[in-house]
Amino acid sequence: MIVTFFGHSNMLEIEKKEIEIKLLKVIKEKFYNVETIFYLGDYGSFDFISKKCCLSLKNNKMKLVYITPYLEKLENEYIKQELKLYNEIIYPELEKVPKRYAILERNKWMVKQADYIIFYINHSWGGAYKMLEYAKKIK
Hints:
With 139 residues, the chain is an alpha/beta fold. It has 5 helices and 5 strands, in the order βαβαβαβαβα. It has helices spanning 13-31, 45-57, 77-83, 102-113, 127-138, and strands at 2-7, 36-40, 62-67, 88-90, 116-120. The protein has a 5-stranded parallel sheet with strand order 4-3-2-1-5, with helices on both faces. Helix 3 (77-83) links the parallel strand 3 (62-67) and strand 4. The two termini are 16 Å apart.
């Protein structure tokens, strides 16, 4: 089963701990004892919390996969160190996509691959909201 996460990139500090507790609970209850591949991005507060929760609960049934929208990002030394936390890195075929649309297209690809998507949405605009609407549209 493939699980991915989408949420707003900016969160209030007070929200972060509450969301982390809820997310840990969901992952424990739904995915802890199931063969699960977590597709993760790395752009903002909710992505950071999602990665943190997955890493803290990771067991031999869980696999963490970083989905990158940019191949050149993999050349950055800091990123290389961070990526050691993941089991795998996937670059969807986005070579023909203009850079300004790479994250959007990567996100659509993630939605299409996922069996489950966990959203953190608190307003009706932005990329996370667009992905929620997209996920509903394609069911």
